[in-house]
Amino acid sequence: VMAQFGRPASDITTGFITTPLWSKLDEVSPDDGDYIIGIGNGVTFEVKLSSVTDPVSSTGHIVRIRARATGASGAERLNTWGLYQGTTAIVTQNASITRGSFNGYSITLSGAQADAITDYSDLRVRGLTAKCAIL
Question: What tens digit of pLDDT does each residue of 8-40 get?
């Protein structure tokens, strides 16, 4: 099975500043100078991914982002970020975000989570932040 990559293709929720969001997140190689910013707690971003075809496999589904903390107090978090099909969560997690430099964060879907995807044309990445930048 050939690898496919769903990349941000349009904005769904733009609580972050520096819109449009998708065009700052769609690089094949990460660009640390081109990112979106969520200021304060409880700021949501959501981008729709480009369509991919159903790989007819329950393995190898990975959601990846890069983020860095921008605050100076308490642990910054990317709360409840993950992959959604429409409004339905496929997989989510909370992540403490490091300060000072962008780092990669990923979620590998279980077979059951991958099998829950029925429409590969309506996949989205969503996150709720506490002071962090995403690219």
Answer: 999 998 777 778 989 988 888 888 888 887 776
State which amino acid sits at residue 55: P
Position of tokens 């099975």? 1
User: Exposed, middle or buried, 120 (CB in 10 Å: 0-12/13-18/19+)?
Assistant: middle
Q: Are 53 and 4 in contact (CB under 8 A)?
A: yes
Contact 21, 12 (CB under 8 A): no
Amino acid, single-letter form, for residue 94: N
3-state secondary structure of 22: helix
Q: How crowded is the C-beta side of 45, counted as CA atoms within 13 Å?
A: 33
